[in-house]
Amino acid sequence: MSEAPANPRPAPGKRISFALAVLMHLGLAALLLYGIRWQTHKEEAVQVEVVRAVPPAPTIQPKPEPKPEPKPEPKPEPVKPPPKPDIAQKEKPKPPPKPEPKPEPKPEPKPVVDPFKEQLQREAEQMKQRKATDAAAQELANMKAQQANTAKAGEMDKYKNAIKGKIRGNIIMPSDIKGNPGAIFEVTQLPSGDVLSIKLTKPSGNPAWDSATERAILKSSPLPKPSNSELFQRTLSLTFWPQED
Q1: Whether the predicted pLDDT of 167 surpasses 50
Q2: Which of left, alpha, beta for 197 (phi over 0: left; psi -120 to 50: alpha)?
């Protein structure tokens, strides 16, 4: 509640009431004077209308004037920074994103070791290795045997050619041979090369050629020996042609 001022001013209504009261009293006094004067001249009854004075108007206390609300102070406008040059406004290139570290793989659980199973696996591996070794050894042996057989066949051919060469040197060619008929003889000999027997297994068709060859075999005894005693054969199958390369 606001306090009353120290020196209150008189209300304007009060002064008006006071002035009206003064005027009414003055009017009433004038009427009285006029009535007295009028009675001195005439004896007529004078009716005086008494006017009741108007009571003064009640004093109205003036309402205190509302204080003006303080106006809000204007906010200072923000100072705009000076525009930056174009070079400064350009954004710097962003660095490339760093590769995310890959999670380390979790170690796999170790399998349960079965000693019996491991033993079986070792034995199977050893068996496999032995088979491979045996196969390689057999292949090598076959190769060596083939080479030996080839060499033996070559030595055997040399041995037979030596025998046939000696026998052909002792053949007396018949005069009535026509063509190139071949005769096969089976010759049995001793390790010393001495001829034991001669058998004509396939005649040539020319008896003169067959007889001349058989005589030459007997005359060539003892026959040439092989360079290797293992190549010796007790029975030999020999073929003879009148015209050989």
Answers
A1: yes
A2: beta
